[in-house]
Amino acid sequence: MARLPLLQLSNISLTFGGDPVFENLDLVAHPGDRVALVGRNGSGKSTLMKVMAGLVEPDSGLVTPGPGVSVGYMEQDPDLGGFATLGDFAMQGLDASELYKVERAGEGLKFDPARAVTTASGGERRRAALARLMAGAPDLMLLDEPTNHLDIEAIAWLEDELRQSRQGFVIISHDRAFLRALTRATLWVDRGAVRRQERGFEHFESWRDQVWDEEDMQRHKLNRKIKAEARWAVEGISARRKRNQGRVRALQELRAQRASQIARQGTAAMALEAGPKSGRKVIELDKVAKAFGDKVILKPFSLTVQRGDRIALVGPNGVGKTTLLNMMIGALAPDSGDVRIGTNLALALFDQARAQLDPDQSLWDSLTGDPEMRVSGKADQVMVRGAPKHVVGYLKEFLFDEAQARAPVRSLSGGERARLLLAKLMARESNLLVLDEPTNDLDVETLDLLQDLLGSYDGTVILVSHDRDFLDRVAATTIAMEGDGRAVVYAGGWSDYMAQRTDQGAVAGPVPTGKKLPAPTPAKTAAKSGLSFTEKHRLEALPAEIARLEAEIAKLQELMSDPALFTENPVKFQKATEALMERQARLEASEEEWLRLEEKAEA
Q1: Which of 312, 414, 514, 602 has a C-alpha 20 to 30 A away from that of 65?
Q2: What is the rounded distance in angstroms from the CA atom of residue 131 to the CA atom of residue 209?
Q3: Cβ-count burial of 19 within 10 angstroms (0-12 exposed, 13-18 middle, 19+ buried)?
Q4: What distance lies between CA 85 and its chain's CA centroid?
Q5: End-to-end distance of the chain based on CA atoms, in angstroms?
Q6: What is the pairing mode between strands 185-190 and 168-172?
């Protein structure tokens, strides 16, 4: 016997005073559904979820829950007014006997139910909202960016809970690893239409590309047909005294059909341009330590950051990642030890709290009011990597339309705020990028572009992230802050770190590279008394660095193989040539350094 739907949306149309967000939308959520809800920032994902939750009333159409079906929604900005503690809020709708459910969720999501609402951070409020949903266990759970403000341990707990759950759920998330692990179907919001595929997020990008390829083919066929009909209309006049009005009307209809097609939103025209080269040593930490009262954040820790490194800091919330980051860039003094900052550094910072954005400022003023972007005597222009640009033109490069330019920052979605902050950061030349949780709220296309930009960025990158997929794609070295002041250096990204980690947190050897350099085992590494700690770390990190340089060289060689590049864009060709020579020199130096250290270790 067929099971009734959990929720049905019938002929839904919705506008907010402008173009339709949705038109004649039909959608069904089935029992046991595990659905990824995906789409570009601003496409209407959160709006659709609020329609499903009954929080936004459509202009027309019906939202019909199944008989006796409960629908729960996790808000991004929950209203905790009227509640004394986070636990009181999370217990709403539950019996006192179910307190254990909230306490269990609080332990897994790492928030204190006894925390007063008035002193709770935004992240704690969101975790309380998520705990409330998980404890209530509605038949259909609607989760809007549930992993924001969760550390990797809490994400793993949530992932396991949802995997074991019998409830249906729909998830909006930027965390690709999370979506791949949990979803069996995908809803794609694109230009007011919602498509469904009965396969999980893992297959989304290939599906999207196939749809777009078919779209492009149909558009190409339509353009050819219009061109042929237009030629007939013009050339046939001299051979006939009277036009075939039926074919003329058909041509007009074809043109109207083309005009009605909604163009796909392109990717943001983001660009990163490194300034003058920094010194070879960017940052050097020598036995740096830090504590706040009785809480030890970092025991004596040494590290050398070389120009071009890609370093990730990982660990639970509150362990001290941002503290270490601030000491590395000289924003916070250590209690003991030395921090030596390299020469000729040009720092660009992406902060997790988006503190560089004033919510009451317009997007226009946010850019033109930035001292580093201001153009003297030009109120409508901003300085972008040394050249003036019209502020609206620059905003359009980051997918903001002209109407948004005068809107307040507070009106933006989380993903749009992240894009605006990236616009400010990428306007300046830099050779050291510090990124604190850069992936929150960004859509798949923007994440892919950001990853590619970081891969070709001719500078040094230090990032803090809980996004496992992003860490794997970007990081060549991982510093794991494992509690009690311990910071351990591992080669590679998140998956490499997990593969190397043992119960004692020891290093299990570097990641393999294309050259198949011999990877030392833990026992062998420990026995290398001929190497200093820094040399041991360097020997373990070099294979991953060599692999990254090889990949960058291959990418540059592919770019330069285009015969049109030199004639059409000689400046880009010259920069690619210089970058290729620089990376080839670094690769040769890295291979020589590996051989020297390996010989020293064997001796």
Answers
A1: 414
A2: 36
A3: exposed
A4: 32
A5: 74
A6: unpaired
- Torsion sign across C-alpha atoms 230, 236, 241, 242: negative
> Which residues, at least 6 apart from 533, have a Cβ–Cβ distance to it below 8 Å?
302
Confirm or reject CATH 1.10.287.380 for domain 518-603, answering yes or no: yes
The rounded distance, in Å, linking the Cα atoms of 153 and 150 is 8
What single string gives the DSSP state of each residue in 460-488?
Answer: EEEEE---HHHHHHH-SEEEEEEETTEEE
The DSSP string of 407-452 is SBGGGS-HHHHHHHHHHHHHTS-BSEEEEESTTTT--HHHHHHHHH
The span from the CA of 404 to the CA of 342, in Å, is 40
CB atoms within 10 A of CB 207: 15
Query: C-alpha 279: how far from its chain's center?
Result: 29
Q: Give the separation between CA 39 and CA 141, rounded to whole angstroms.
A: 19
Instruction: Name every residue whose Cβ is closer than 8 Å to that of residue 564 and which is 6 or more positions away in sequence.
Output: none
CATH no. of 281-517:
3.40.50.300
Q: What is the distance between the alpha carbons of residues 343 and 308, in angstroms, rounded to a whole number?
A: 14
Quote the CA–CA distance of 183 and 121 in Å, as a whole number.
30
- Listed by start position, the domains of the chain span 207-260, 281-517, 518-603
Edge-first strand listing for the sheet containing 281-292: 295-306, 281-292, 336-341
DSSP strand pairing (374-375 vs 347-350): unpaired
> Running along the chain, 603 residues long, what does each successive block of 10 average in pLDDT?
80 80 90 93 87 93 93 88 92 90 91 90 89 94 92 93 94 94 94 89 90 76 67 54 55 57 57 81 95 94 93 92 93 95 90 80 91 84 88 87 88 84 87 88 81 85 92 91 92 87 45 35 40 71 81 80 73 78 82 77 70
Supply the pLDDT for residue 240. Answer: 46
Distance CA 55, CA 37 (A): 17
* Structure token digits, residue 554: 């291959």
Please report the pLDDT score of residue 257 as a whole number.
56
For tokens 């970081």, what's the residue?
Answer: 454
Q: 437 and 464 in contact (C-beta within 8 Å)?
A: yes
- Which residues share a beta bridge with 311? 462, 477
Dihedral angle of Cα 485, 491, 493, 495, to the nearest 10 degrees: -90
- Output the pLDDT for position 175: 92
Tokens of 165: 């759950």
What pLDDT, on the 0 to 100 scale, is given for residue 172? 94
